[in-house]
Amino acid sequence: MDDAPPYLGEVLATADLTGRRSGKRVRLGGVTYGRPQLGRSSGQAELLLAFALAPPPPGTRYTACYLRVRFDDPGVRAVSARPLGDGPPGSFFGSDSGAFGWFAGRLDGSEPIPSGHRLGAVIAAPPGAGELTGVLRVDATVATGAYLTRSRHACASLHPAFRVRLAAPAAGHADQNSRFTPEPIAAGVRLCCAADVERFSRFRNPEAGRAQRRFVELLARARGHARIEETGVHTQASGDGQFAVLPGGLDEASVIPQLIEGLRIALAEVNADLSTHARLRIRVALDRGHIAGGANGWIGDVPIAVHRLLDSPAVRAALAEHAEADFALIVSDVVYGDVIAHHDDRSLPESFIKVNAVLPAKNFAQPAWVHVPRRP
């Protein structure tokens, strides 16, 4: 990109965006990284990031993009992130480690995204830190095919390193105990999602760390695809799993089918370049009910029930019996009856099988519905 857009500032690097076709890497686009800068937001250090997507090949378009930032110092973390200017809304994830990500767009190719993106991330750095160093990575989803209905994951060929000097006051302004905190949860009826990784214990420590990052990112991508506002999502991590309380007031008739589709596409993208050993396969459970925040977690029947569904032999067997599938989903009878059974496209409710979710040791037995996605 010879004439870089002015919002990029100084260019840090350029790279191709490539994907696999018939076992070979092909160019699907390109990206220009702006050099990160330090700004201020409400008295806190803010890392200003920008990148521009080069025009994709004729007959294709970008429908989603992912920015990942990994800090060299694991004590540095992003507290929050927001789009700057007229950038599209997105999903921020990874606030509890020395890396974070930002996802914007949709995974199904239905809508294009702009080529330019600017982001501000509030940073918490250890006391005395003089600079921020790390690595940037941009990936994208490219829609191809005669009707732009096929989604392909495109990875940047270069992940450039960056260095930003911190002014002395800036590193200490962010509360060292601060975390990315969603909007306070109000008691009420919420949709809850639990997920975990199949056979997570097979990973050695470095592999487990990479698998966790992929797992957290793909769940955030799926929520972004369903247009779930991430600032209203409350998550609880458990190593190989995640429990999420989704925002109130969702249009479940739209959100749940889009979330299912987002899981399918996000997992296909994540697994496209992974070996059989590294491939992620997950179980997912959805339930809805009254929930309230407590002193040490959530209070209500639904947080318990959704984990019982997730652990039930019915969904475990479904994933084991379909080796080609990336995930198996189990939903409560109320979610199926209220939402999925009434979906306009009859292929969705017909893809669910009624089961009995039974865990005698936990005194749990409920009717439920299991879905295993078919290959497109």
Walk me through the structure.
The chain is of the alpha+beta class and 376 residues long. It folds into two domains: 6-173, Immunoglobulin-like, CATH 2.60.40; 188-371, Nucleotide cyclase, GGDEF domain (Alpha-Beta Plaits, 2-Layer Sandwich). Helix content is 20%, strand content 42%. It has seven helices and 20 strands. The strands form two sheets. Strands 1, 2, 3, 4, 5, 6, 7, 8, 9, 10, 11 and 12 form a twelve-stranded antiparallel β-sheet that branches. Strands 13, 14, 15, 16, 17, 18, 19 and 20 form an eight-stranded mixed β-sheet that branches. α2 runs antiparallel to α3 (252-271). The longest helix has 21 residues, at 205-225. The chain is globular.
Jot down its keywords:
single chain, Immunoglobulin-like, Alpha-Beta Plaits, twelve-stranded antiparallel sheet, eight-stranded mixed sheet, 20 strands, globular
